[in-house]
Amino acid sequence: MHSKQELKKVHQRILPYIHRTPVLQSSLVNEISETKLFFKCENFQRMGAFKMRGATNAILQLSKEQQKKGVVTHSSGNFAQALSLAAKSIGVPAYIVMPSSAPQVKKDAVKTYGGKITECPPNLKNREETAQQIIRETGASFLHPSNDTNVILGQGTAAIELLTEIEDLEFIVTPVGGGGLIAGTALAAHFFGKNCKTIGAEPFEVDDAYRSLQSGKIEINETTNTIGDGLKTQLGDKNFPIIKEHVSQIIRVEEKEIIEALRLIWERMKIIIEPSSATALAAVLREKEKFRNKKTGIIISGGNVDLKNLPF
């Protein structure tokens, strides 16, 4: 079982390696949503997303022996970048398995952060086999982007900062992809909030978490046809029990609602966020009744956008 002390320790441990990101408000967005919103801007985190937190905590929890041999993960996006930069900051080799179809901009970012890339055909079986091969050759430790306890606890530190800065939040809304962010956030809300409920936001196109909460077991997606490219992964056995226990609801949103929310934040708040992040605001706008006049925190998960591929 986790405790408030444990989460505090995690936060202290990673502080030297991360940014304490700002909490922004917009009176115009408050007016449109008819509530008081507090945006925790992890798009300003190092490497541009909350995943820096979990990657840092997971590496710091390895023994010196393990750190020497390095870390390995398979990811096409933000976790690849996070693990590379966190490893570089701590002085640890990072081996990254990326699907050959990953955007060049993401491959370039991983290289800039010092990650050693091995490309493989774009399916999970190949990703896992390639990672296993690297582990056999190097003795590196495998770190999963979202289904690893130390990663989950690290991701929860964004919500800890938000809850200590803005008191009496009634809701925190996060996007749901692999489940690491929402699980960590839900633990933080449980231990640091005062009756603060955690709510997930998910596209209808990839609503595996919504269905998993209904059926009580991990469901998978048949299609991944969403603009929220960070939300295509599914829940894991480490984060799902936390989500089942501590997440009060998952709100599903349509693609056009995600794009509208994305546009609203770009235009009105003048900050660059990625489409996955916009699902949280889209959920609040979709269910205005629920959030009306409540103090609501929104975790802006990241800002790593492919500028050649914008929906507007």
TrEMBL record:
Domain Tryptophan synthase beta chain-like PALP: start-end pairs: 15-302
Superkingdom of origin: Bacteria
SUPFAM superfamilies associated with the record: Tryptophan synthase beta subunit-like PLP-dependent enzymes
Pfam families in UniProt: PALP
Alphabetically ordered keywords of this record: Pyridoxal phosphate
InterPro entries the UniProt entry points to: TrpB-like_PALP, TrpB-like_PALP_sf
Cofactor: pyridoxal 5'-phosphate
PANTHER family hit by this protein: SERINE / THREONINE RACEMASE FAMILY MEMBER, SERINE RACEMASE
Protein name: Pyridoxal-phosphate dependent enzyme
